[in-house]
Fold this protein.
Amino acid sequence: MKIRALLAVGLALMVGGLPVHAGRAADSVALAVLHDGSHDFDFHMGVWKTHISRLIHPLSGSSQWTGYDGVSTVRPVWNGKASLFELEASGPAGHLEGVGLRLYDPSAHQWNLNWTNSTIGRLDAPMIGEFHDGRGEFVGQDTFGGRTILVRNAFYDIRTNSSRFEQSFSADGGKTWETNWIMTFDRATPAEK
């Protein structure tokens, strides 16, 4: 959509100018394209008390959830253009250790989120996306139960001392989504507002 709008603006300029209202639209498109999102994850830096709710059997029709409590630590890398997310939590279903590497692509103005846990030891396929209006949404392809699925990660309810994350799976190409992982973050040492 952004590319088409820019091409239309460029063509109109070559043909002989734009009406005033079209020029304002072109400015809006240019600003959206030039947004530097390299610090969009700054809100998440620090140490967090983390509560996890996990759907035990995703994409099976089950509604049985389990919970974990632990700590997440997020550190900036490359002056915030990347970050390292470490998670350790325990609950009735066992102990979790995971790590995420978030990398900002300045040419695409998007983030790619990479994840692994201590039982796998290799990075999952990246989730690609960006932040708009205080919400970060990232989508990627993965396999689950031997079949290809879509995965969506979302960060929202972002405040100085808290935020929320949800992961959802889609087995039908994105027509329907099932939430299977929810994390709430509360800053271990609340920052002053």
Notes: The helical segments are 2-15, 20-34. The chain has two helices and ten strands. Residues 20-34 form the longest helix (15 residues).
